[in-house]
Amino acid sequence: MGRWKSALALTAVVLSYAAVVAADDASMSKDLGATIALQGMPCDKVIASKRNGDSDYNATCKDGNRYHVFVDANGRVVVKKL
Predict the structure, then answer these.
(1) Which tens digits make up the pLDDT trace of 38-80?
(2) What count of other Cβ atoms lies within 10 Å of the Cβ of residue 7?
(3) Which residue has the higher pLDDT, 24 or 35?
(4) What DSSP assignment string belongs to the chain?
(5) Quick one: pLDDT at residue 24?
(6) What whole-number distance in Å separates Cα of residue 67 and Cα of residue 60?
(7) Are 63 and 41 in contact (CB under 8 A)?
(8) Which residue(s) pair with 61 in the sheet?
(9) Does 36 have pLDDT greater than 50?
């Protein structure tokens, strides 16, 4: 019975973590979309993103545009079309 409870607890932790990650992904997509729009680039909605490093992302928009969004050495946000 102890193994069953341990397996159930582990499953609950994994599912909780997955829910948090999914919420973070949705939030990050919105943040990336807003950042791209503020830089004057077209992007109707971010549908995929990849984290390259700290404050460094690649974003793919629903309209097919792809961008590299990062913070440069001077602390400025840069958006470059890929």
Answers:
(1) 999 999 999 999 999 988 999 999 999 999 999 999 999 999 9
(2) 10
(3) 35
(4) -HHHHHHHHHHHHHHHHHHHHHHHHHHHHHHHHHHHHHTT---S-EEEEEEEETTEEEEEETTS-EEEEEE-TTS-EEEEE-
(5) 54
(6) 7
(7) no
(8) 46
(9) yes
* Whole-angstrom distance, CA of residue 14 vs CA of residue 63: 33
Structure tokens at 13: 């932790």
Judge contact between 64 and 80, C-beta under 8 A. no
Amino acid symbol at 46: V
CA atoms within 13 A on the CB side of 20: 6
- Residue 18 tokens, joined: 């997955």
| Confidence grade of residue 23 (pLDDT, cut at 50, 70, 90) | very low
In the structure encoding, which two tokens stand for residue 24, read together? 């973070």
